[in-house]
Design a protein that fits this description.
By secondary structure, this protein is of the alpha/beta class. The chain has helices spanning 19-28, 40-49, 68-82, 107-132, 156-175, 207-218, and strands at 8-12, 32-37, 58-62, 87-90, 139-145, 182-188, 191-192, 205-206, 228-232. It has a single domain, classed as Rossmann fold. α4 (107-132) links the parallel β4 (87-90) and β5 (139-145).
Amino acid sequence: MGKLSGKITLIAGGTGTVGEAIVKTFLHEGATVIVPSRSQQAIDRLRGYLADTPVERLTTLVGNIADAEDAARLRDEVLERFQHLDAMVAALGGTWEERLKLIDVPIETWRQYSDSNLTPHYVAARALLPVLVDRAGSTYTLIGGLSAVMPIANYSVVSINSAAQLMMARVLMEELKETQVRINQVMFGVVHTRDRAAYARPEWITADEVGRFCAYLASSEASMISGAVLQFGNRPAT
């Protein structure tokens, strides 16, 4: 059996290009995995990606984890089906291709990226952390980008929201440090995902490596790691 055998895990953002690899790893490690998504098409795409992975412990739910009312409904459905939750991974947010100077970013774009990159983390934490705080051995892992601490020109709407999400994680760690849940933030640079395969560089960390590290954090092997901000950049070029 794997290191996560018997653990009930919810992976928010599990249909994304990083999230799908986290889902795959957690399934291989024995977890029961729950993946919510607004899109049935995204769920179908995830199941296609998992064609060679045992999926009898995968539950998919249609719903919006970034909407407070829907997130509460999803939480209640999870508790009704499984009675408890052991682990949560928040692999939420996305990149930005438009690349404008901050002073040129339209207000609509600013609001859009706050709503899609920052607010989902807040709503997910608000709905699901209360389920974990009294659960022995529970974990909550937030996934972020190194742009939170590295100013990148013409990438403002992502990096500023990433910085805010990092502070959100730190606040949660401080406020809930006396509870049972282990909260950690993991930050990566550019990740080699399936959609970047054509131009990925060998020094980039892979989505599968992200999945394996998240599985480690959710396991008893990492019981000493709590309230940590863990940063991973590129591996040394060869």
